[in-house]
Amino acid sequence: MKKLFFEVLCLFIAFISVVSAEVPTEITYQGRLHEYNQPVTANRVMSFKIYDAASGGNQLWSSGDINISVQNGVFSYVLTPNLDWRTKNLWIETVVSSKILSPREKITAQGFALHSKTSEDIEKSAGTIHFAIGSSTYASVSANGLSVGGNATIKETNNTVEISTKVVATEFESSYGFYHDRGDPSAYDYTDANLTKDGNWHDLDLSGIVPVGTKAVSIFILAAPMTSGYALYWRKNGNSNIFNKAGMYFGAQAIMGDLTVPCDANRVVEYMTPHDISGISICIKGWWK
Q1: Whether pTM exceeds 0.90
Q2: 172 inside domain
C-alpha cells in the first residue's frame, strides 16, 4: 500500500463580488502530496467535501472525483461550493486515491467575505439595488438616489443634497414608543354617567379598546358648560405623587381638549373628581406602544 503524506500549505478564500441572485464564490485550495516520502509528479484522483463538524456531522457539499495534476508534490485546485457561508463552523475533508486524509481541516477564513454573497438579501434589478428584509423592501439605491421604504429619498443635484419625505402612516415615536391613531371612532367611549364622582381614585380598564403593550393613551374630553372650578384628574394606575397626574378644569363655557395618560401593564388608568360633573364625553383617540 502506498504511504501518503499530505500537508496543507494554505487555504484561502477568493471572493468575486457581483450583486445578483447567484453570486459565484471560489475557494482556492493548495496542498503538498508525498508518496514514500517523495513529492508526487503525476495526476491523482481527489475529492473535497465540506462538513459542519470536525468528525461525523453532516456533509454539506462535495466536489465529486476530480483528476488533479500534482507537480513536484504541489497541487492547487479551485473549489466552487454552493453553500450558505453564514454557517459558523465548517471543515473540509480531502480524499486522495480513495484514501480519506484525517483530520479534516477547519476553514478558518470562513466569516469571510462570502457572507456578503447574500448580504442579508441584496437584490439588483433594472439598475436598482434593493436591500430587503423578508419580502419587504427597506431601501434601494439607483441613479435617482437612495430611497428608504419608498417614503424618503436622498439624492444629489448640482452638488446639492436633496432630502424628500412623505407621510404614509399616522404614527410617530416618543418616549412611550410609537403613537398609533385609532382612526375615526363613531361614538364616545365613556360619559360622566360611567364615572364615580366621590373624590377618590378609581380604575378605568381600557383593555377592551387598546392593545397589549400599550404604554400611554391619548384621551379626548368634551365638556358642556358647568360650575366653574370643577375638575377631572387622570393618572397612571399606582401613581400617588401629586405631580404625576393630568387634569382638566371646567367652567361656564364648553371646553374640549386632549390629555396623555400613561397606563399600567394591564392597560388600566385611574381617574378622580370630587365634583358632580355632568355633560362629559370621553373618547380614546390613540395609544403609544
Answers
A1: no
A2: no
